[in-house]
Amino acid sequence: MHRRQWLQSVLGVLALPAHAQSGPQPFAPVVPGHALRFPRDEGSHPQFRTEWWYVTGWLNEHRSALGFQVTFFRTRPHVDTGNPSRFDPRDILIAHAAVSEPAQGRLRHAQRVARVGFGLVDAGSGRMHVKLDDWRLETRGSAYAAQLASDALALELRFRPTQAPLLHGDGGYSRKGPEPRSASYYYSLPQLEVSGRVRAGERWIEGAGTAWLDHEWSSEYMAAEALGWDWTGINLYDGSALMAFRMRHRAGGSLWAAATLRTPDGGRSTFEPHAVHWAPARLWRSPRTGAAYPVAMQLTLGASTLALEPLMDDQENDTRLSTGAVYWEGAVRAVRDGRSIGRGYLELTGYAGALKM
Amino acid sequence: MLKVRGLGKRVGSGHGARVLFAGVDLDVAAGEFVAITGESGSGKSTLLNLIAGLETADTGSVAIAGTELAALPDAARAAHRRLHLGFVFQAFHLLPYLNVADNVALPLVMAGCPARERIDRVMQALAEVGLVLRQAALPRELSGGEMQRVAIARALVHRPKLVLADEPTGNLDADNAQQVLALLRERVDRSRAACILVTHSASAARLADRMLLLSPEGLSERRRD
Amino acid sequence: MAAVFPALARSLARGAWSHDRGRLALTIIAIALGVALGAAVHLINHSAAAELVNAIRNLSGDADIQVSGARTGIAEDLYALLAKQPEVAVASPLIELDVALVRPRGTLRVLGLDPFRALALQPALLGDAGERLLDLLRPGNVMLSAAAARELGLSAGDTLDAQSGLRRVELNVLAVLPVNDALRQPLALMDIAAAQWLFDQLGRVSRIELRLKPGTDTRRLLDRLAGELPPGVFATEMQIAAEQSVALSRAYRVNLNMLALVALFTGAVLVFSTQTLSALRRRTHFALLRAIGLPARTLAALLLLEALLLGVVGALAGVGLGVLTAQVALTHAGGDLGAGYFARIVASLHIDPWGLGAIAFCGVLAGGLGGFFPALEAARASPAQALRAGDEQRALRRLPRYLPGLGLLAGAAVLSLLPAIDALPVFGYAAIACVLLGALMLMPAYATAALAALPARGPLPLWLALQQLRGTAGYASISLAAILASFSLAVAMLIMIQSFRGSLDHWLQAVLPADLYARAGAGASTWIDRERQVLLRAAEPVERVVFSRFDTLRLDADRPAITLIARDLDPRAPDALPLVAPQRLPVDGSTPIWISEAMRDLFGLEVGARVRLPLAGRTIDTTVAGIWRDYVRQTGAVVLPRDVYIRATADERANEAWIWLKPRHSPDDASDILRRALHVGAEIELREPARLRQLSLAAFDRTFAITYALQVAAVVIGLFGISIGASAQAIARRAEFGVLHQIGMSRRQLGRMLAIEGGLVGALGALAGLTVGAAMSLILIHVINRQSFHWSMDIDVPWFPLVALSVLLSACAAVTAAVSVRRVLEDDIVGAVKEDW
Hints:
- The structure holds three protein chains of three kinds.
- Chain A is mainly beta.
- Chain A has one domain (about 1-20, about 40-350): AttH-like fold (Beta Barrel), CATH 2.40.370.
- Chain A has one helix at about 1-10, and strands at about 50-60, 65-75, 90-100, 110-115, 120-125, 130, 135-140, 145-150, 155-160, 165, 175, 185-200, 205-220, 225-235, 240-250, 255-260, 270, 275-285, 290-300, 305-310, 315, 325-335, 340-350.
- In chain A, the strands form two sheets. In chain A, strands 1, 2, 3, 4, 5, 6, 7, 8, 9, 10, 11, 12 and 13 form a 13-stranded antiparallel beta sheet that branches. In chain A, strands 14, 15, 16, 17, 18, 19, 20, 21, 22 and 23 form a ten-stranded antiparallel beta sheet that branches.
- Residues about 1-10, about 10-25 and about 320-325 of chain A have low confidence and may be disordered.
- In chain C, helix 1 crosses helix 8 (about 240-245), helix 16 (about 425-455) packs across helix 18 and helix 18 (about 475-510) packs across helix 25 (about 745-790).
- By secondary structure, chain C is of the alpha+beta class.
- Chain C has four domains: about 1-60 and about 250-400, no CATH class; about 70-230, no CATH class; about 440-510 and about 690-835, no CATH class; about 515-685, no CATH class.
- Classes of the chains: A mainly beta, B alpha/beta, C alpha+beta.
- Chains in contact: A-C, B-C.
């Protein structure tokens, strides 16, 4: 329990607006008009306060289908103090992984936190190369690889890109609220061909499927009045990729929303806040936290609507109750007209109290 | 020599109290040998203790050689005893860690007799009871009769005026008893001391000049038979 | 037979109980006191030691291995090296510093850790304060354990000033940590990076704790690491490392336990005297039982059972009392018994059932042992003999004579020549036990001989008293035994402590040669930096300065660290080294070192021996030039020329300065001038040698305070013994007193006679106690202290206290005897004449 608690306190940084911290603005701002370049921008951006690499995906089909999620967060806990120590906690890495298996009925997950340094824990610049001891997410040739192991689970996966990076918002400048400074640089690598094996408990499962990688960095992610967010990333079977999110207002309703859709032919459309509409279709109440999550959603983008239906209901990331930062992160199917048209992940935060420390 | 008047003693207290004896009068002249008999528990030993000044009477007085005992403090009574009295006990009561000679010498040591004279007198006393050869023996090495002979020597070595003998033959067989009694009588007569012998044995009492019977009402003369 | 056994036992016990109620009660009290003392001392020490081990174990959670070296730490690069080993699951680097506090005054143990790594080993470390984890990463923020907050009177939000070098560092109390098993001791947690920075420890960590992956062969990994780690750095299994932390105090703890056992042994002697007298008094009773058909063996068994019962009752009462005492002591005085081993440990009672069981068993054994010989004797006696008067003395005559006693003394001499076992002077203790037992067995012979030698003259009470004692040397020897058992140990301890104190005083004079001593605070986080060293040397009143730097070194993985003293010195004539033999400088040009006696003993080194000292990750070749006496560092110390140390480590800090003043300056005005010249206030302690001596001797006296308490207990138990013996005799001799009274001894004379008897026995006992105590003090000094603590000392006999104590003891014995017979004399002693005896 305690371990989850401190992890949560680190995660809580995401919810802290930078201007709430004392002193001058110490982190680089996210501004429009900055061009992202690859593979350079796949690497770390230590001048920004938070950054994450987020891989979600499905392995296998039908009854043996399972979801997985691998996340590496980088966060700067505070302004540079000038401490010359090699232990100085300038950057902290948090890694989190979960496997969703319908047979299991709930998530298996594993997590780690450590300060960057001594070549043991590092988020490299120039290319994707994140490691936390022997847990890694890195570029391997033209592909990427994730590798991590704990008692509860292990993942050894390779991801082969089939499409170009998908930039969100205005060329990768993705606003998160009405204030322009509440924004991030954000791109995704959708339609990754994934193969490898997953260990759930003691059992190894070989598999292949499609995955989605998000890479996002910012200094001020969440607006002060935001309660949490809903997010989804779907690999459609026809090769299209869809990302949609909304920031929910503390007073209820949406504070901000956006979506990006790219068709296989490369046609990319973005949706303004008013064109993105999230409607809960079914609530699931966690027996552990008592929180009610809209685990099935009706997502309307402009004129088209699709339903998000979970692989299983209980995909709650069961972290500590009292911090109020428990969230739901699960594999979902996209369904239109009763037919499955794609698979991806849905993330629901701020349902078990506001996402803050 | 000894003058006892109206002596009375109660034992116990409260409701259980009873008169042991009352109105005891007794005169013993120098050189006289008196036997006192009585039932068990009639207070024969208590009477001796009163005479010796070891207990205090409820009524009456005891005077030895003109000295009223009750008037004296403990130290003076002790001094009086060590000068004028000699004791012989039923259980001999020799000090176990002193040899025969030292046991006999005890009254002389207490009286502060010089060492040379003490040795002479002890030797003489032992000779008189026929135990010179056993002078270095410890009490436990002696027979009962021998022990009582040592006790008699001890009782007389300092030439007391009065010898108090409490059942001296009680622990001895008949032959030994006879011998010890004869010895006691002889030694007392020789030293011209008076002697009060307390006994329940009629044969022992017969040895005395006078026989008295102790009862709650006092002492009464007994006919010799 | 079996059926009547309980009835007989009851009858015998009733006989004993009705006659000897007071004595039996005293016997039980004596055993209970001995057991209680042992239990309390053991429990307090055990609790403190267990607390220390648990504190380390709990703080490191499920770490398997600890890698550590000198006190100044090991290179931080080792962290990366170790974390990358394939067998290692978690590596947690730590900095541990005893930091001097300026506000509030005091010291505080600061643990600089990487919370992420430390929490992986011990998830419960921060408790609810885990929410403030990110704040803990900020330099200057600390979390205090509840014990530290209480001790310093601080709460969350307060600040405190610590000393680093001679700088002040302000620390903020971020939170007071909830009480949990990992954090029971006074402790401050801060981030390792902050600790390195604020306390000038950049590049170094104190230790690294490792958790291994499941299935790792720990032994093999340790062997491999032994080859890969730099010199002076060792990997140790966590449990062993935790136990090493209390190994230092082990000899002290064992010594205290032994002392407590001695108090218990005195109790055993008491049982012996009580049971002997009691058996004597019931002699006719036994004889009668034997005469009507009770087998001798059954009688002996019954008596032994009776003694064991006394032991059991005493032991149970003692354990209860001891637990209570320990609980009270721990709550109100902490876990330290004065020696400072556990001075800062907050301990709660740890019941150690095995230890307590052993002590209680010793109590029962004391009862059984004390009752064994009387039981044997009673069984051996011929009933016919016993029924006769005056047979008691015959019985006592059979008490052990010369040969077994002399044999035990010879055995003691042999035992005292044997070496320690596992660093404990087991044979030394055995030798002491042999001396005591042997002496006890010789008491009848001694009593007979000594009494025979006394002239038989003087006034009646004296003459009679002497005759009585001579005639009953057996009784006398029982009283002598009780006196001997308690007094000899008091004598031994007095001589040992006086010798130690005297030697320490001489030693302090030798090691404090200068006019003034400067020390930078008490903790490891403080030092005199190079600039101030220069200022100090150049200061006006200063004639000469010698700087010392302290560190610890580990020469191997199994033994605790030794102290390294790097000192400015002239190798031909080093200052203030109390050498035990003339020194011999190496002729081959290797670096001379001077080692303490403890280091010589522990590492088997002699003058001329070559030693490779690990310094800053390398080794330097040195040769032992001399051996010096050290009363401070029990695990060993080595003095090294400071220039060599600086060349090897580039560490120019100093912890201590010895200052010789120019003749016209007094220490007082020089202190003021120096403080101004160095721009320091309280951060540097400036002290005169007289004051340091005074402080050291006060600390010494504190160490032995508990020892004195144990001795007082033993002597009191011994006096119990005398009074028991006296009153028993008085009762037994009622008829004798009666006869003496009848044939003309006054009560006063009788009282005087008994006082003389008591006084004579007391004096003889004191004489025996002095002799035996002196012999035991030699074993304490030359065997037990040498083997336990590795320090030698010169014998110094405290004549006045010993003579005074002897006189007091004799007087006590006389008074006790007189008092205990008074009641009997006031009774109807005349009536007693009627009783057959």
